[in-house]
Amino acid sequence: MNIIKFVLGKLNYSKEENLINQSENIHTSTYSEDASLLEPSLVANNSIWDYKIMLLRSLHKLKCNEAKILDERFKQYTGDVSPIIEEFISIGLIKKACIIDVLDANMTVQIIKERLRNLNVSTSGKKKELLEKLMNTLTEDEKANWSGEAFYIVTKPGWEVCEESNRKFKAEIKKIEDLAIEQFCKDNPATGCKIISNFFASAPFNTGINYAEGFPGRYRLTVKHLMNSNYLIDSTNLIAREAKIIRATIAAHYLLSFRQLESRDIATKIFLIKDDFRCLEIEDFLNNNPTGIFEYCNPSDQKEIIEIFYHSLTSKALHDVDLKEYNSEKDRQYLKGVTILGGKENCIICKGKENHYSWERLETIPKLPRYPGCICCYAAWLKR
Q: pTM (2 decimals)?
């Protein structure tokens, strides 16, 4: 892959197909591996985020009289929300709930039957029939009150638009992910991290982290540890090249998971690299009657094996980074050492284990995870 070009932009739909019209908010740009994805300002000004689709999803089951609250969230991306909502309605992507829809959303069958009994109306029939009976008993004032509770409903064509948008969005994420994986495989972890952090920097609705400056140091170090670790690798059926690609794939998936923007689940990704993936250490662990959250795991279910493998590798890298960081804080007067938290009641391996280690005994602290899938973690041991 010398130069990868792809368009990041607003998805365009035609009205004739019951889709959203082109708008003035379309942003398109052709990115190359060696320039734009590494330049935060360029990424921030060109976006794959389809704000209209985000707005469309946000409207589902939202009360019509509360739609204005979306202005504060979306106005900087879409302009005034009201005309866009009217556009959605006119092309059939959403509709306003009728009174029966409102009743249906607010009443169980039991409540409807109770009301009908009080009005001496038959309670036979399914919920739809019962709602129609109740509707016929409402006064004009009652109808007006229920109309005030009306909400928007995304229609079937609306959900089809959302699904198509999501499919294209996932495809663009996959391209970004592949660029990062390539850099990790080339032993350029800083560049791979920057590709994903710049993607996050272009995201709307800031999470409080300035991704334009890159990932926090802890996460960059975790990726480096992931790429350099052979934990569990020797018990797999991977050749060296496959192992490196899988570690890079896990690193990219781990970073994208911070904003739940993974292109697909980790098991699917690893199956595409190694369709007969095996990890004997995890299989042996599951065959040894584990307790806790692993009690009902199936040793022959390769998807479960891969999920435990992913959790174990990322946990190992995080724990290595955390322990090194705690080691650098020995001079802090409020710290006695390091403690192990979390999983001591989870399985027979961790249960009853010692969990406090002073600075003098830190060299004896167990390396986490103690076993594949272990949920223990290191924490500061504070003086009281």
A: 0.77
Tokens 């004997």 correspond to: 280
Burial call 280-291: b when 16+ CB within 10 Å, e when fewer = ebbbebbeeebe
360-379 pLDDT per residue, tens: 888 899 889 988 888 888 98
b/e burial code for range 174-203 (CB count within 10 A of at least 16 → b): ebbbbbbbbbbbeeebebbbbbbbbbbbbb
Count of C-beta atoms within a 10 Å radius of residue 382: 11
Domain spans of the chain, in order of start: 103-150
Distances, alpha carbon 28 to alpha carbons 43, 51, 200, 263, in Å = 11, 14, 17, 21
Q: How many CA atoms lie within 13 A of 134 on its CB side?
A: 31
In the prediction, which pLDDT does 176 show? 94
**Helix, strand, or coil (residue 46):** coil
Distance CA 48, CA 29 (A): 9
